[in-house]
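For the sake of transparency, this paper describes our internal protein records without simplification. An entry from our holdings is shown next, in its original layout:
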Amino acid sequence: MRLVREEQMGHRVPESAVGALCAELFAPLPRSDQRRKGELYVRGLLSAGGRKSIRNIAACVGDRAAEQSLHHFISSSTWDWGLVREALALRLERSLRPRAWVAQSVVIPKAGQHTVGVERRFVPSLGQVVNSQQVFGIWAANDELSAPVNWRLMLSGQDVREAADGHEELVSGRAGAGLPVTPLECVAGAALEAQSWVGGRPRPVVMDLPDSEPAAVARRFEAARLPFLASVHGSTRVLPAASALPGSGRAAAAVPVLPGHDSRELSADQLLRMLRTLRRPVTWTDPGTMAVRTSLVAAVPVRLPGTRRPLLLLGEWTGPGVRPQQCWITDLSTVPWGGLLRLAKLTQRVGRDFAGISTQVGMVDFEGRSFEGWHRHTTLASGAHAVQALSGVQRRTAARTLPGARTASARVGAPALAGVCAAQPEARPA
């Protein structure tokens, strides 16, 4: 069997797998030359060494004369990337059967100011201000695998004016991008669009938006009619349900009231510390090592100041301290605590797959001023990611079926929220 040349990947991708997925992804494109160039580009992303520039891709597929043609295909052509993303989402729906949409924020350092979306911004992980893009991906994810299906690029100033010039459909989002101006709108818009592609029961959106007010997140996803689970700071102010506090009111009375706040408000940390006797052990699988780990969790009904919608505050303890290591707010109030924690841990699955697959197929390599070009390149890189990831699943599945192979404890393809809502019975507070 012929194989796509592979230098950086963890395994080699059968050429037949590339052809089969590309035939499905590009079937909605009306022109045969667009379908052919789309497949050529995906093959180049999978095979080219180093940075996945159009020049390197053209050289890798054996046709340097194709460089100008591929450049036009990415930056100036008329094909609708939204159709390809929809086809990708539907394929992953069948092959992956995801449990959640996971929102991932990525800051991509860039040299100079010549790439669309680049501006100077502070990057906490680097501790400095750098020229960079900020992009948001929506990933279909289960415990064993994740793949991106939709993207948004943060724009401001001149980039917004250039992208919108003569393209009213981009402003309205009809072409599958829109011009969002906040991280919350990036994530909500991309998740809502992804859900519209696959239909069916709304899938929870798992996210970490540290610069967005939790109340604004709750209101936006209520309006979108999408369930959510969002990481929040321990300092987030919450209003516990009257029945949530321990029997004695002395602990609550000892909490200082901040000026301008409701006397019933507590920080998430304060409330969870008061309820730490309710903690229960929950197991989850580390996506890096596939080792089973155990955390202590507790959850309590709350409201966010300025909202009326009942929510659940979830805390996780990974050490002996009284303070939770992480907190989340969710409207999935009927899901067992263990199921909620395992949903939250899908962000680690996405982070690992982004580093191990997406960056290797050129997801962060686009250079150029074209807003549409960035979306087309990112769409094709998402297709290349899917080829690589799904062929890896097939390879592991085949290995498991060999005589004497150990049966996997985690099954790829758990239905949305199955395994979450149907997790092992777990203790709850009375």
